[in-house]
Structure prediction request, 228 residues.
Amino acid sequence: MAVIQIKRRTSAGTGPIVGTAGTIKAGEPLIDLNGTNLYISKADKTGSSANPLTSNDYIEFASKANAEATMDSKISALGLGTASKKNTGTTNGTVPLIGADGKLPTSIIPAVSPVTSVNSKTGAVVITLAELGGLAASTYNAHVSSNLHLTDDQRTKIANVKNVALMQGVGAKFDTTKTSFDASVLDNGLVLHSIQDTNYNPVKTFYYIGIDKTKVLTPTSVIDGGIY
Prediction:
């Protein structure tokens, strides 16, 4: 019985015949035994320096292994992960499942208790909140101190907020009016400077406060009685 062998690559390298040498016929199959892909010539062509054979002269059919590798690479590039076949649950990095009641687990979306009412004049249907915050009291109590409803960015902003107050005491007092304050302080006695640090979220402002050295006596100050 006759054996038909199609044109095949056994030399080093991968891919179909390319370059300035070689002749192909339209519909001619070529099998790459190294790269394991199949190629079908699109048209009659003989390679030359002016018009070499290229990969565009063929229709390429990937082998099973190469096709799977390409799909895996594409899935990784799109960031689809593997959640479609595993990694279900309610913990970090998993995909929650809809329960038999048609709802997501209460650890993901707490149970709510809405009540609908119909306006007797307009017929409008209004959803009112049956319990505290629209949640069951037990659910609210379980999450009252939680920050799960905040984004990571919001949590960072809140964590960077500081509650600071200036207090009066033996060494300081509050003036009751701006006029009284202006009359009590040294003109331009303090030098202020601020820096906006964008490495913080929200942006953090640093204030530098110093006493104007021309307003006070220093070891090098000169007390001059003047001339006449």
Summary: Helices lie at 64-77, 137-143, 152-159, 178-184. The mean pLDDT is 82. The first strand starts at residue 7 and ends at 9.
